[in-house]
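agent> Task received from the user: take the single chain below, predict its 3D structure, and emit structure tokens. No templates, no multimer pairing.
agent> Plan: (1) validate residues, (2) run structure prediction, (3) serialize to tokens, (4) report one or two observations.
agent> Step 1 OK, no nonstandard residues flagged.
tool_call: predict_structure(input=
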Amino acid sequence: MIEKKCLNCGKLFLVRPSRVDIAKFCSTACKGEYSKKHSGSIRICPVCKREFYAKGNPHGRGLYCSRKCSSYTRRRGRVIICETCGKAVYKSPAFFSKSAHHFCSTKCHNEWQGRDRVRYICKICGNEFSWSASKEQEYPIKYCSMECRNNDPEYIRGLIALNARQLRKKKPNKLELAGRRILEAISVNFEEQVLMYDKFCVDVLLTNYPIIVQWDGDYWHGNPGRFPELDKRQEKRCKLDRSQDAYLLTCGYTVLRFWESDVMKNPNQVTAKIERILDDYNKGAISGIA
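)
tool_result: status=success, residues=290
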């Protein structure tokens, strides 16, 4: 083996006699570095001042080390100062046509927009939140979210009471009118759309008896005779009906439920059942769901 000196780094290295005339570098890396230095392909980027290698034909390459530096020279915008944090940031010309106020980020933009907002404390969770002052003129601000609003018993009671007033104002549907005629024929005193315990409305309350009458639409309340397989909406309504019935039963009421098809097609059967329940009640106290 013959010892030679690397043409690039000056390090001594050993080569076979057969390669003594052609071996000039101690490694491929040194060969590459030497080629770059002496090929005329090494340039200095005029933007970032970084030295870079123009691979291939050096005259066919641009003057910049990267697309970022090349794009920098074509910028037509200007540097602005964020109105919230004071940070300097470049914005394109299109940005200035959209707004008279300039920000470095969406976060700073939102902070600037909320500068005049009123601070509130959530009635339910106690967290602080902000809201536009103009909203206070529309309705009182009490909750930071819909979830907290829906967890307020006072709000729920008010909402139920409002729904009850709206139900009493609206015109009765065909089912309710048919049920009204049945009760009027029996000559029993009753009230319609009655709010019970600030929780829910019932269709009819017999004023002289602890008896509640519900006119159930076949679809909405899931009549099994017409709808053997209930959809999600019907299942939810049936579950709610059972819950209301259990609550009213605990409160000492008898709940009578009649399907729409029976009220419309067999009013005599409905009348007979109500009269039987009233007779049973007059003979001896009864309660339950019939």
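agent> Step 4: summary for the user.
The first strand starts at residue 2 and ends at 5.
agent> Done.
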